[in-house]
Amino acid sequence: MGVMAYIAAAIAVGLGALGAGIGNGLIVSKTVEGIARQPEARATLQTTMYIGVALVEALPIIGVVLAFIFYAGAGS
Amino acid sequence: MTDPSKMNKLMLFSIAGIVIACLVIAEIMPHRRTVFHGVVLGASVSCFNIFYMARKIMNIAKSASGERKGRATLGFGFRIATSILAIVLAIEYPHYFNEIAVCASLVTGYFILPIIGFIMVLNEDKHHAK
User: Fold this and answer.
1) Could you tell me if A71 lies within 8 Å of chain B, comparing CB atoms?
2) CB–CB of A50 and B113 under 8 A?
3) pLDDT digit string (tens) for chain A, length 76 residues
4) Other CB atoms closer than 10 Å to residue B58's CB: what's the count?
5) Beta carbons of B4 and A69 less than 8 Å apart
6) Other Cβ atoms within 10 Å of B92 Cβ, number
7) Interface pTM (ipTM) of the complex?
8) Nearest residue in chain A measured CA to CA from B4
């Protein structure tokens, strides 16, 4: 149980962080590109980025919290 | 399009409603009190995370349009750290907070925010159609 819990924690954190990194990178890069091209569209793009980042970030937070629970469970 | 501060205000009201409902239900059902206290803790941390994220996103947009100098980041590490702090509290004090409830409610704000965004955009579209 101990070793498997550590592996589960590592997979949950690693894959969650990978997905969030790619997703956030794409969202922020496209938004910054759009704002640099059209500064007057900042409000619209900012709100779209806000919703997009919120959608992307939910999963890695669940992953990290689950990993921490696995880690705490493996130690006890 | 809607302003992030308007969305934040609506989200704050929604989470405040959830927190008040959980506190009332916790008093009605004392044998399930730890679950509702866990939901209160998780929803509060989630609300704080969303406000912090909104501030960071506004800073990034200001940097991109040249209104602000210096480096702008998303602050993801800080949000992860606050989430871990909440779950550590639940692990350390299991008599007060249910661990699973805290874990599940840490993403309350992240689910409420897109729903509020979609509803506001739909309302604006209806307003423009008239």
Assistant:
1) no
2) yes
3) 688 888 888 898 899 889 999 999 999 999 989 988 988 888 888 888 888 988 898 888 888 888 888 887 776 6
4) 18
5) no
6) 9
7) 0.81
8) A47
Joined together, the tokens standing for residue A15 give 């894959």
- What letter would DSSP give residue B70? S
CA distance B49 to B52: 5
pTM for the whole structure: 0.87
Helix crossing, B108-129 with B4-28: angle to 10°? Answer: 130
Distance from CA of B98 to the nearest CA of A (A): 12
**Measured between alpha carbons, how far apart are the two ends of chain B, in Å?**
16
> Alpha-carbon distance B40 to B21, whole Å?
9
- CA dihedral sign of residues B2, B4, B9, B12: positive
Q: Which two tokens stand for residue B50?
A: 């969303």
pLDDT tens for each residue of B26-80: 999 999 999 999 999 999 999 999 999 989 888 888 888 888 777 778 888 899 8
Cβ partners under 8 Å of residue A2, min gap 6: A74
Cβ-based neighbours of B50, under 8 Å, separated by 6 or more: A54, B8, B11, B109, B110, B113
